């Protein structure tokens, strides 16, 4: 069977076994592998520790993502902001079409920033702070958002100007920074309702961990696609 050049997206391959395969050139992106303590063996060798070490080398500060106390969370957020500042500088130096370019159907750089606005709104503004109308109109929800019971009309249609996206994004980054500046240890354990599953509970700490995870994963995706765009020339 020849599966050369095939593409698999949004599918579950847990515990799949491949034997006698020619896997040269395979490109795997598994956001769950590292954080769930998974195993990925190639010719009998678990490559997850190597992948983890390489990601931590490429993204200094990512190791702080699971910080448990206010001071650690503030340091983790400072690392996130620094990493995104560097990436924004990189994008500003690339060709004008970079911010709206899609690689293999993935979100563009501008769309990624808009999604992070929405992620901050749902986990900080709605879940932690309990704001009744938490969403910035330039936020970008993912597929299935409406099915989860949310009103998609909260978001503006069309393609906004990049300057407006940057302004919205900067505002949300500042909100997290300001929240963390005043955070004390007792607040971390406060019970919150999971925004996607009302029957599940979270706490302030776990919500902040989700925000940090969203930031690092989408930065990784963005850097991956920027590399691809540069290689295209």
TrEMBL record:
<protein>
    <submittedName>
        <fullName>DinB superfamily protein</fullName>
    </submittedName>
</protein>
<dbReference type="Pfam" id="PF12867">
    <property type="entry name" value="DinB_2"/>
</dbReference>
<dbReference type="InterPro" id="IPR034660">
    <property type="entry name" value="DinB/YfiT-like"/>
</dbReference>
<dbReference type="InterPro" id="IPR024775">
    <property type="entry name" value="DinB-like"/>
</dbReference>
<feature type="domain" description="DinB-like">
    <location>
        <begin position="80"/>
        <end position="221"/>
    </location>
</feature>
């Amino acid at each position: 069977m020849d599966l050369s050049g095939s593409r698999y997206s949004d599918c579950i391959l847990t515990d799949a076994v491949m034997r006698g395969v020619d896997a040269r050139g395979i490109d795997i992106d598994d956001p769950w592998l590292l954080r769930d303590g998974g195993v990925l063996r190639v010719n009998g060798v678990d490559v997850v520790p190597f992948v983890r070490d390489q990601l931590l080398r490429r993204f200094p500060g990512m190791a702080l993502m699971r910080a448990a106390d206010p001071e650690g969370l503030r340091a983790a957020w400072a690392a996130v902001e620094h990493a995104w500042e560097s990436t924004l500088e990189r994008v500003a130096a690339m060709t004008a079409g970079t911010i709206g370019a899609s690689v293999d159907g993935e979100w563009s750089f501008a769309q990624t920033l808009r999604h992070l606005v929405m992620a901050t709104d749902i986990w900080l503004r709605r879940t932690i702070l309990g704001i009744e109308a938490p969403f910035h109109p330039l936020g970008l929800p993912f597929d299935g958002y409406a099915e989860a019971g949310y009103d998609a009309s909260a978001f503006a249609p069309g393609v906004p100007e990049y300057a407006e996206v940057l302004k919205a994004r900067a505002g949300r980054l500042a909100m997290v920074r300001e929240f963390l500046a005043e955070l004390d240890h007792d607040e971390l354990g406060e019970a919150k309702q999971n925004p996607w599953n009302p029957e599940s509970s979270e706490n302030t700490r776990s919500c902040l961990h989700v925000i940090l995870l969203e930031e690092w994963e989408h930065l990784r995706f963005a850097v991956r696609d920027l590399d691809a765009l540069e290689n295209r020339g």
